[in-house]
């Protein structure tokens, strides 16, 4: 029994590498698998960006709505001039949502609606030092306007006109 085991191990050790045909078969199988995976990975990357865009739109719109609600209920300090009736109590800029704003009342409380302005993952930055790459709409603008009136920030949209995986334009989200 011992001799049979040694002869089997010796036979395995004497075999030298792979043949050319075996290498070609392995390369062909790997290339077929790679070509099948590449389109799936591209779709996955687009889907991740779409999810990030939806999340960022929701975060910004909720911050704008919360600012308006605080202005309407007089929770923000009206003496500081944050809430303006001629702006329908919407913020003047997106950057205002990242600043500490004084709350109304006897205490020195401040509130920041956002730590930072999230980026639009589909739209490149216009300037390297400017982090805001969103399209803005004021309260008096048309719902589908691409030009900001400049009065206040009522809504935001993506400046990218590409079509999503579901068939709608990112700018209409």
Summarize it:
This protein has 173 residues and is mainly α.
Describe the structure.
It is a single chain. This protein has helices at residues 2-14, 20-72, and strands at 101-102, 110-111, 134-137, 155-158. It has 173 residues and is mainly alpha-helical. The mean pLDDT is 83. The chain starts with a helix and ends in a 15-residue tail after the last strand. It contains 2 helices and 4 strands, in the order H-H-E-E-E-E. The chain has a domain at 20-131. The strands form 2 sheets. Strands 1-2 form a two-stranded antiparallel sheet. The longest helix has 53 residues, at 20-72.
- Describe the strand arrangement of the main beta sheet, using strand numbers: 1-2
**What structural category do the secondary elements indicate?**
mainly alpha
Strand content: 5-15%
Number of strands: 4
Described by strand count, sense and barrel closure, the largest sheet is:
2 strands, antiparallel
List the helices and strands and how they pair.
Elements: H1 2-14, H2 20-72, E1 101-102, E2 110-111, E3 134-137, E4 155-158
Antiparallel strand pairs: 1-2, 3-4
Which terms summarize this structure?
single chain; about 170 residues; mainly alpha; two-stranded antiparallel sheet; 2 helices; about 40% helix; about 5% strand; elongated
């Amino acid at each position: 029994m011992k001799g049979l085991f040694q002869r089997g191990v010796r036979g395995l050790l004497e075999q030298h590498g792979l043949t050319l045909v075996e290498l070609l078969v392995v390369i062909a199988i790997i290339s077929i698998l790679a070509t099948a995976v590449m389109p799936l990975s591209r779709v996955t990357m687009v889907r991740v960006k779409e999810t990030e865009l939806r999340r960022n739109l929701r975060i910004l719109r909720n911050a704008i709505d919360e600012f308006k609600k605080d202005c309407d209920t007089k929770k923000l300090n009206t003496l500081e001039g944050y809430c303006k009736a001629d702006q329908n109590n919407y913020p003047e800029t997106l950057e205002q949502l990242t600043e500490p704003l004084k709350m109304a009342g006897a205490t020195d409380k401040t509130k920041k609606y956002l730590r930072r302005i999230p980026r639009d993952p589909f739209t490149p930055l216009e300037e390297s030092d400017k982090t805001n790459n969103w399209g803005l709409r004021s309260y008096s603008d048309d719902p589908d306007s691409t030009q900001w009136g400049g009065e206040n920030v009522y809504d935001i949209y993506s400046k990218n006109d590409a079509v999503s995986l579901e068939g709608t334009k990112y700018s209409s989200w």
